[in-house]
Design goal:
Number of strands: 0
Distance between the termini: 41 Å
CATH superfamily: F1F0 ATP synthase subunit C
Radius of gyration: 19 Å
Strand content: under 5%
Number of helices: 4
CATH topology: F1FO ATP Synthase
Number of domains: 1
Amino acid sequence: MVIRESLKRPKYRYIMIGVALISLIAAFLTGIAITHAATTSSSAATSPYSELGKAIGAGLAIGLAGIGGGYSVGVAGAAAISAVAENRELFGTSFIFVVLGEGIAIYGLLIAIIILFVLP
């Protein structure tokens, strides 16, 4: 519902498209840099996964989880501020919902670490 409303406004649509493009470009450039570093430092690659694919996957995991976490914290934070302004006793409950949104970004970081360092 909120995404549909934000896509109707050109300013927000361009911001969302820009953030998605920046995350894709960052993932691609990170993959190129890691592949270049891996090919110059060692001659034989023993991994069944390409280093470029691993780096792009890790970059996308962090970038998209960051976008999702930021969006959820923004929406939950706005609702939490409204709820606390009306009733001070709701601070603890609303704080938990805002913190749960940050967990999305942490999950993305953990997946990126697993992709880069655990996968063969």
